[in-house]
Specification:
This protein is mainly alpha-helical. The chain has two domains: 9-44; 53-167, no CATH class. 61% of the residues lie in helices and 3% in strands. The protein is built from seven helices and two strands. Strands 1-2 form a two-stranded antiparallel sheet. Helix 5 packs across helix 6 and helix 5 crosses helix 7. It is elongated, with a radius of gyration of 24 Å.
Length: 180
């Protein structure tokens, strides 16, 4: 904002004045792009909130993560009939990685990587700000699980939560996009 207040003279041969001119032009461009971004950000927010207000209302679900989840599910979320199928679609289904006497699981490498990233962001948000999730992570750490394993469990839980939310009948009324 300080660069917008610069008042260069017409003497562009002077390096100081040329720098002021360039900085002021960049500041104007930054301001105009910031306004354009703010304007365009309202469109996805409206669409995602209309498409699935139950997910947006949940803790940790932002507009971008919810949009990615809805994009991954596509136009027919009924094709994912079980929470396990949803976890496989998102790449969070536990895969056995046992060896000898060790019994453990790892994340699947298949599935939609962007949806997996969305679940990862939701899990990280909940770990940082949700006391219930923090208590769960502390309890699982005491049980000997690594942070990676705890994130795997959280992602799987979030996938089950998404499935439950999407398969439950919608009780909130949706308003049409074009009001009379």
């Amino acid at each position: 904002m300080a660069c917008l207040r610069l008042r260069p003279t017409d003497n562009t041969a002077d390096p100081e004045q040329a720098t002021k001119t360039a900085l002021r032009a960049l500041a104007r461009r930054h301001r105009s792009l910031s306004e354009e971004i703010a304007d365009l950000d309202t469109h996805p927010r409206t669409l995602v909130t209309l498409a699935c207000p139950q997910l947006v209302a949940r803790h940790g679900f932002g507009i971008e993560t919810t949009a990615q989840i809805l994009t991954t599910l596509g136009d027919n979320p009924d094709r994912v009939r079980t929470p396990a199928a949803l976890a496989a679609l998102f790449g969070t289904a536990p895969m056995p990685a046992s060896s000898g006497r060790t019994d453990r699981h790892r994340l699947s490498r298949s599935g939609d990587r962007q949806a997996n990233r969305a679940l990862h962001m939701i899990a990280c948000t909940r770990l940082a700000s949700c006391p219930r999730t923090q208590a769960y992570a502390a309890r699982r750490t005491q049980q000997g699980l690594s942070k990676k394993d705890i994130l795997r469990c959280l992602k799987n839980y979030i996938a089950r939560e998404i499935h439950k939310t999407l398969t439950r009948p919608n009780t909130t009324p949706q308003t049409p996009l074009d009001k009379p």
